[in-house]
Specification:
alpha+beta, twelve-stranded mixed sheet, three-stranded antiparallel sheet, binds zinc ion, 3 domains
Length: 352
């Protein structure tokens, strides 16, 4: 396994991708380099060879962890099988395992981070404070510092959905004369046949990331997507896919078919009642691309439960789930409840 580092050409420091300027920046001498220039000049010669060894430790799914030795300091870096971009915990060097992003693992595209870790920390604090019942522990600084920028692997599916459906519909007309009320029901058979094109519907290719969480971080703006370049990974974690496109395909087709079906249903309009008799969706012209999308995550456990917070690293959309904390709830409700009781008591006294 070849390790790739981001050594500053000016001072040898470990460079990081800067979301603000979209350049590689050396935090030591402040030099900045265009990502494409830097990687074109340096990517052909990975700086260190490292044997990939199994460790005795296991990840959360019971898979073996891997050990890499840092080319800068010789320290041993422990990582899951899919993790390909990381920081050496000893010397803070940014390291990429070449083989995790080359060959069949080479992404077609990447959406670079545009939000900084500080943006993510602010969003998290705002979110926790807006949930007044959240336990204090969620706002502790050392805890917030554990927010990590991760490039998550996504499969982008493009396809055409060929739709065919028949519907029974009615139109009801009512009127009255001096003797009777009349109701006239007209019956119709409606047919819909057509196709809808879908472009690059994202489905996450990471076993560790909950699908529903990733879907709620959408949309990502694809117009900012650029051809993949390892320079964007510097200073961030990045995972290679461990769910294949074949495994994700059914989920992608389901999402596209659901959207197409809804659109065709909605086009049967102007009736009193509509009933779908039969319909089918067929997927054609399917293709897929592989991309890395930017996400900030904070994974935390509290009182034996796990909580995951995440922010879209491009748009800043923030989502999370927070627990209900009893001690905080008591503090929050009791002063109010006592206050109300006191006012009621006062009123009773005044009017009695
Ligand atoms: Zn430097
Ligand atoms: Zn090191």
């Amino acid at each position: 396994m070849a390790l790739h580092e981001y050594e500053c050409p000016a001072c040898g420091g470990a460079m990081e991708f800067n979301p603000g300027t979209q350049k590689l920046k050396c935090p030591f001498c402040d030099s900045e380099f265009d990502v494409r220039d830097y990687v074109a000049n340096h990517s052909s010669s990975p700086t260190g060879e490292s044997s990939e060894n199994y460790s005795d430790e296991k990840d959360s799914e019971g898979q073996p962890m891997y050990i890499y030795s840092c080319a800068s300091c010789g320290g041993e870096i422990l990582a899951t099988e899919s993790l390909g971009s990381m920081k050496c915990p000893f010397c803070s060097n940014n390291v990429v395992v070449h083989e995790k992003f080359t060959g069949s693992f080479k992404p077609d595209y990447i959406i670079p981070f545009t939000k900084t870790k500080e943006d993510a920390m602010e969003a998290y604090k705002g979110y926790v404070k807006s949930k007044r019942l959240a336990p204090k522990v969620f706002l502790e600084e050392n805890h917030i510092d554990e927010i990590k920028g991760v490039y998550v692997p996504f499969w982008l599916f493009s396809a055409t959905q060929e739709y065919e459906g028949t519907f029974e519909a009615t139109r009801i007309r009512t009127w009255s004369d001096s003797n009777y009320n009349y109701t006239e029901t007209s019956f119709y058979e409606a047919e819909r046949k057509g196709s809808e094109d879908f472009e690059q519907v994202p489905i996450d290719g990471s076993r560790e990331m909950p699908d529903d969480l990733m879907e709620s971080l959408e949309p990502f703006d694809r117009s900012a997507m650029v051809p993949f370049n390892m320079g964007y990974l510097a200073g961030f974690l990045a995972n290679k896919y461990n769910v294949t496109a074949d495994e994700d395909r059914a989920r992608a087709e389901e999402r596209m078919a659901a959207t197409a079906t809804l659109n065709f249903h909605n086009s049967v309009a102007g009736y009193s009642t509509v009933r779908c008799v039969s319909e089918r969706c067929r997927t054609t012209n399917e293709s897929h691309k592989y991309a890395l999308y930017p996400v900030y995550v904070l994974n935390t456990s509290w009182n034996g439960d796990n909580y995951l917070f995440a922010m879209n690293g491009q748009t800043g959309k923030f989502i999370g789930n927070l627990p209900f904390s009893m001690p905080q709830a008591a503090k929050y409700y009791f002063p109010t409840a006592l206050g109300v009781a006191a006012v009621v008591f006062l009123l009773i006294t005044m009017f009695s």
